[in-house]
Design a protein that fits this description.
It is a single chain. The protein has one domain (24-198). Helices cover 35% and strands 14% of the residues. It has helices at 43-52, 62-70, 98-107, 127-132, 168-178, 200-207, 209-230, 235-243; strands at 25-29, 38-41, 78-82, 84-86, 111-112, 137-139, 148-150, 182-185, 190-194. Strand 1 and strand 2 (38-41) form a beta hairpin. Helix 6 (200-207) packs across helix 7. Keywords: Glycoprotein, Membrane, Signal-anchor, Transmembrane, Transmembrane helix. It is a single-pass type II membrane protein. It is found in: Membrane.
Length: 244
């Protein structure tokens, strides 16, 4: 996600220490009649809202603040999933309600996030169930799951090895699962990803073989660390990765 690189001098893999960078342009909305709210924000804000740390509740849209209280987020290990969608259009009249979003989904104006590129990233969200859901529902971790989540401020941070493209959210969600966080999908919240130019890091990933080799090396390193920290419980992550 950031501007760091994994290719060091001599082609060796480096471990960047820069903070997460912002890429993309997304909107998140939590419809609630007259108080329906939306905000344009880059991926950095969504991720700090959703994963690295939860900001003060006053920053959150009203419906998310209600969910934080209703699900007792401050005192429980829960990760609230905000279902992600995307549009291929650079101009979009943002859906003001879930009903409007579903209509746009049916018309092909919106799609579930990265369905045509990387289905596994958000498949466990269970979009078919979300269409008719009226209450929060729990989903289980699966390999390569990388939803946008709202969590407690004291949750595990992103692993800084993955500061560039690839595996930043995957590794973080894996860590949350290892620490027994419960993944709960919110029925009336959603975000829409807007198209944007490819980031520097994804361009390097696509064009530079060494970058891809380094990512593979860092993934293996991370999995070994997981095994050391969580022992037998981490076996499922290795098994899932080998079967994916």
């Amino acid at each position: 996600m950031g501007a760091g690189t994994r290719v060091g001098k001599g082609g060796a893999c480096s471990t960047p220490v820069q903070g997460l960078g912002a890429t993309g342009d997304s909107q998140v909305v939590t419809p609630s009649g007259d108080d329906a709210q939306s905000s344009h924000q880059g991926e950095k804000q969504i991720c700090s809202l959703g994963s690295v740390s939860t900001p003060k509740q006053s920053v959150l849209p009203k419906r998310l603040r209600k969910s934080v209280i209703q699900l007792d987020l401050a005192n429980t290990k829960k990760a609230m999933i905000v279902p992600a969608f995307e549009t291929l259009r650079y101009r979009l009249s943002f859906p003001k309600s879930k009903a409007e979003l579903l209509s746009m989904l049916d018309m092909g104006t919106l799609f579930t996030f990265r369905y045509h590129v990387w289905t596994k990233g958000h498949a466990p969200t269970n979009f078919a169930k979300w269409r008719t859901a009226t209450t929060p529902y729990r989903v289980e971790w699966e390999a390569d799951f990388e939803p946008y989540v709202v969590v407690r401020r004291d949750c595990p941070e992103y692993d800084r090895r993955f500061v560039g493209f690839g595996w930043n959210k995957v590794a973080h969600i894996m860590e949350l699962d290892a620490q027994e966080y419960e993944f709960t999908v919110l029925p009336n919240a959603y975000m829409v990803h807007m198209p944007h130019a490819p980031s520097f890091d994804i361009t390097k990933f696509r064009s530079n073989k060494q970058y891809r080799i380094c990512l593979k090396t860092l993934k293996e390193e991370f999995q070994q660390d997981m095994s050391r920290r969580y022992g037998f419980a981490a076996l499922k992550y290795l098994t899932a990765e080998n079967n994916s």
